[in-house]
Amino acid sequence: xxxxxxxxxxxxxxxxxxxxxxxxxxxxxxxxxxxxxxxxxxxxxxxxxxxxxxxxxxxxxxxxxx
Length: 66
Ligand SMILES: [Zn+2]
Description:
Elements: E1 11-14, E2 25-30, E3 33-38, E4 44-48, H1 49-55, E5 56-61
Antiparallel strand pairs: 1-2, 1-5, 2-3, 3-4
Zinc ion binds at residues 18, 20, 22, 38, 40-41, 43.
């Protein structure tokens, strides 16, 4: 499976959405841990990068210029 190339401030869809009903998360911190902010209710969650990689479904908005 192709590895998704994400970066800070990308908006991503996870395998499981937020309990508020939305499934669009902005990456607001990218390190060993990744912090995601729900674009609907603005709550944030922290995930280990390995866990994030497992739960990531697709990138909705990429900030990549290439
Ligand atoms: Zn939410």
